[in-house]
Structure formats: structure tokens, C-alpha cells
Amino acid sequence: MSHDHSHNDDERGLSRRKVLECMTWAGTGVLWTVTGGVPHSLGLVDAANAAEPTGMTFLQISDSHVGFDKPANPNALGTLEEAINKINAMPKKPSFMIHTGDITHLSKAAEFDNAERIISQAKLDVHYVPGEHDFLDEEIKFYKERYGKGTKGPGYYAFDANGVHFVGLVNVVDLKAGGLGNLGAEQLGWLADDLKGKSKSTPIVVFAHIPLWTVYPEWGWGTEDGGRALEMLKGFGSVTVLNGHIHQVMQKVEGAVTFHTARSTAFPQPAPGAAPSPGPMKVEDAKLRSMLGIASVNFKQNDQKLAIIDTPLAG
Amino acid sequence: MTVTALRSLDWRNAGLRKLNVRNLGLALVIAAALLSPLGSGRAQAEEIKVSLDNFTFSPNEVKVKVGDIVTWTNHDDIPHTVVSAGKFRSKTMDTDGTFSFTFTSAGDYKYFCSLHPHMTGMIKVE
Prior knowledge:
The complex is a heterodimer. Chain A is of the alpha/beta class. Chain A has a single domain (2-27, 38-312), classed as Purple Acid Phosphatase, chain A, domain 2. In chain A, 24% of the residues lie in helices and 23% in strands. In chain A, the strands form 3 sheets. In chain A, strands 1-11-12-10-9-8-7 form a 7-stranded mixed beta sheet, with no helix packed on it. A 5-stranded mixed beta sheet of chain A has the order 6-5-4-13-14. In chain A, strands 2-3 form a two-stranded antiparallel ribbon. In chain A, helix 4 packs parallel to helix 5 (109-119) and helix 7 runs parallel beside helix 8 (226-233). Chain A is globular, with a radius of gyration of 18 Å. Chain B is an alpha/beta fold. Chain B has 2 domains: 2-39; 47-125, Sandwich (Immunoglobulin-like). Helix content of chain B is 26%, strand content 33%. Chain B is built from 2 helices and 9 strands. Residues 1-22 of chain B have low confidence and may be disordered. The chains are: A alpha/beta, B alpha/beta. The A-B interface holds A 70-72, 105-107, 132-133, 136, 138, 175-180, 217-220, 276-280 and B 54-56, 76-79, 83, 85, 91-92, 94-95, 110-112, 114-118, 120.
């Protein structure tokens, strides 16, 4: 116990410089494999595409911001549709899809309806978690009506697929002034119960909107009590944490935990500190689709391998 | 009967509405006379503007007098809110959206954006 605590303190004491050094910046895409809990980078996306996935594959899409029509992308619904077309063109049909939030831009009923109309064209089960843009309606009911069934609190839940345990968390409610994303005591209690009794060899995938690790607190890119969730995941041999919110690919590996953020299907955001604010980044029209995209995750159960492949919409 | 009673109420309301329109000028004069003591002797309340640009409140700290109105305007391409716990809470402001609040008692009002809580600001009311 005391060892755990000191380790936790070390993590908390990491300077921002150290945290940023730990990150691996990705270009168009990186293939990751995990052997015995230690991930290795295998190569860029072309090499990844060449390797036929043989295990269970699922997809991650994120930050579709349906309704966004500003200069950074006047047609966010159109690029979502391009992403879905890309999914439909995949040689191997994925088992299901997760959406890591910000389905809509302003939580309007019509935005949710449009998103559903396009995303359903993939003909896949979709497991959602909300982003802060999905909880903007006065009664916070549009998201819950559509995606809240069978979930707890503001929408967290767990499910199992092909021997992998998936946990969808909500870190976009009850945010405190000056703070970051927030899970809250009730959700953390639920998570502890959910993980209790799970074999440490069970591969775990945790997904939430805002990164669960501290990416860049100056822009709110992190989760205040994310460390407490990660503490509960210590000891599991394979943990994958999938997030959105920051509209760019970012990866970090810490022991048996692989952190990964997906691109948006709507608009890119700047690298931490590279602009005055994290707002939508306007790029040349020709470059936009190279900065939007989807991620697919492949589990090869027998050889304990996990691969995350990021695929841009173009280029 | 209830229906009849309701109808006659409607009639009375309609009559009142006409009366109100006719006497609007007089009503405004009375309202102005009633409101003037609230300004603590000042000619009129001021409107102070706070701008939301690049995920910051600008100016970040504002000093106002009791009775002044602060109006926030969002110039970002991302929606924001203005929330001061227990004091005021705006609806979501999309691009060019505004929110106004009249400060009727002195004090320090810390506020933040509930969507991007690293955005914080302060209104000091004297």
C-alpha cells in the first residue's frame, strides 16, 4: 500500500515539461502492439494497413460536432459522412464502434438526429459517452433520451466483448471553476465495484471524452480525478485508455497502460501551447482531411497483441 | 359556469392590455421615478462589456458599481457559459451570443465557464 501511495505522489509531482516529454507525437498514424503488457510501436499507418487484422476489431470515432459550421470546417456533417463511408469501405467489418463524445456542437435535437442518421449508416452497434457539447440543452435530456438507457448517473456503464472489458466514463459534468474534467466520487465508487473481482489478465478498455491523463492543464486538457481511476487499473496486464476532446492524435505509454486520443471528424485543434487558445484551427482546405479521421483497435487475443490504427480521412 | 367565467376574465385582460398601452408613457415616468433611488444618486447605471476571446474573459477582472449591468459577448467559434455559483448562470452562448447581469449588491463575484472551467474571471461590485 505504501508503495502505491509513494508512486502516486511521484506522478502528481511530475512537472509539465516532464509530462510533455513523455508523450509520443504521432503523424498520420501509428500501429501499436502489446506483448506481455509492454506496447511497441511498429510503424506508420501504411504498414499497419498492410497487416491484416485477425482478432476482434472495433472502431473509435470522436468529436463529430454536428452543427458546427464555422470557417475551420463549414460542413462538419459532411466530414462525418466521409468518416462513415471510410468505415463502410473497410475490408473487415468491425465488431462495433465507440464514440468518445461531442456528437453535436450545441446539443440541439436536430443535431442529434442528423448525427444518428449518418452514423447509423455504418450499421454497427455504437457505444457512446457524452462530451460537454452534448449536455448543453436546458434539461440535459436529448443525449440521455437517445444514449442514456442502461447507464448510471450522467451516462457511465460497462460491457464485455470478446473477453475484453469496456468501461465508458463521463468526465464532462459538474466541472469546478479553475479545474479540469471531473469523474466525481459516485462514479469512482461505481468503477471500483465494477473492477472488483475481475481477473488481472482481463484486457481493459476505458473510454471517456476528456483525456483521463493530464495532457495540458492550461487548456483544461486533463481530468482532475483521472488519477484515481488509473490507480484502480494498476495491476491489470493490458489497459487501453481512449479519449477525444483534443481533436488530434496523441499517445502515451505508462507501464501496462496505453493512452490514446483520436482525431475529430469535424475540425482540428492546435498542439498544446501552439496557439493562443485550443479553439478550432483553420487550415488550408486541401489539408483539412489529413487532420480529421477515425481510429480502429484490433485485439489479437491469443498472442496478447493490441493495435491502434489511426486513419485520416485523406492524405 | 366556469367557461363563462374564463371568458369574462379574458375580456377583462384585453381591456387591461388596452389600458396599459394607452398609459405606457405615464407608466414609464412612474417606473423611472421609482427606480432612481436604486442608482445611489448616480444619473444612471452603466453597462460594462466583457469579451470572450480565445478562451479568456477580457478584461479578466472588472470593477463596477451597485446597479451596473455587465454584458458578456462570446467571440469564439466554440460555445461558452458564464457561471457564478449561486449568483448567476447564463445559458450556453454560441458565437456572438450575449449574457447580461445586473449587480444589485456589493461583493466579489468569481465566475467561470462551466464548459471550459480553466476560464475564470472576477466582477468586483462596490
